Amino acid sequence: MTTNRMPALYIGHGAPPLLDDPIWSGQLAAWAQDLPRPTAILIVSAHWESAPVSLSADGVDLVYDFGGFDAKYYAMTYRTPPATALAQRVAAMMPATEPVHQHASRGLDHGAWVPLKIMYPHGDVPVLQMSLPTHDPQRLLALGERLRPLRDEGVLIIGSGFLTHGLPFLTEFRIEAEAPGWSRDFDAWAGEALARGDVDALADFQHQAPGMPYAHPTVEHYSPLFVTLGAATDPAEPGLQVVDGFWMGLSKRSLQVA
C-alpha cells in the first residue's frame, strides 16, 4: 500500500439547489478537506447509463440534465484539467471483451459536477466521468475491483447517486421536508447493512429492503454504490458512513471505504 492511496466514496449528489444548501454543502466540503488530495477523480454518476463503458471528454460543456430550476444553474461552469491520462489508464484496465468507448462530446452531468463543485471548488483536479454500464450488482462489483488499483495512484473513485430516490412518491419539495416512511425505512436498513458489511444483502435490496419499490422505482441512483464497494480493499469490511440524514425527504447517507 502506498502513502497516497485514496479511499473510494459513495455520495448522494442532490439536485442543483444543493449548491445553495449550507448544511449539506458544508458536509461535503468538510469531507473533501479531510481526504488526501487526489491526483485525479473518476466518478460514476446515476445520470449516465450507457453500455459499453463510456468515458467523458475533456474541455466540453457541462450536461445540464435537469429542468425547472433557477436560470443561474444553467449558466454554471466547472472547468477542470484534462483527464486524458486517466482515460487511457482506465481503458487499458478493461478486458478485451469489454471495450471502452471514448465519448467525444459528453461532459460532466449534474451527478458529477454539482457535488464536485462543492468538494473541489477550484476545479484544479482532473475529473473523468465513467458511464454506468449495467445495474447488475455483481458486474458492478467486478468493475469496481478492476478499478481498485487506481486508488494506489492517488485517484479518488466516486459512485454518485442517492440512497433513496423515490421522486414520484414525494409530496413536498422543500429541502427540510419530512422523510416519508419508505425513505426512512430503506435508509435505516441500508445503514445497518453497510455497518455490518453485508454486501449480499445490499445486492438483494429489491427482495430484502423495506420501502421498496418506493425508495427506488428505478435503480440507477443505488447502483453506483456497488462500484464503490467493488473498489474497496475488502468490500465486506464496513466503511465509514460520513453523511446521514435527509434532503427533500431522500436519504443523503454517504459512505467512505478503505
Structure overview:
It is a single chain. The chain contains eight helices and ten strands. The protein has helices at 22-34, 84-93, 110-119, 137-147, 181-195, 199-203, 205-208, 224-231; strands at residues 8-12, 40-49, 54-55, 101-102, 127-132, 155-161, 240-243, 246-247, 250-251, 254-257. The termini are close together. The mean pLDDT is 96.
List the strand order in the largest sheet. 5-2-6-1-10-7
Mean pLDDT: 96
Biggest sheet details: 6 strands, mixed
Number of strands: 10
Segments where pLDDT lies below 50 for 5+ residues?
Answer: none
- Structural category: alpha/beta
| Estimated helix fraction | 25-40%
Helix run count: 8
Spell the H/E element sequence: EHEEHEHEHEHHHHEEEE
Strand content: 15-25%
Distance between the termini: 11 Å
Rg computed from alpha carbons, rounded to a whole number of angstroms? 17 Å
Shape: globular
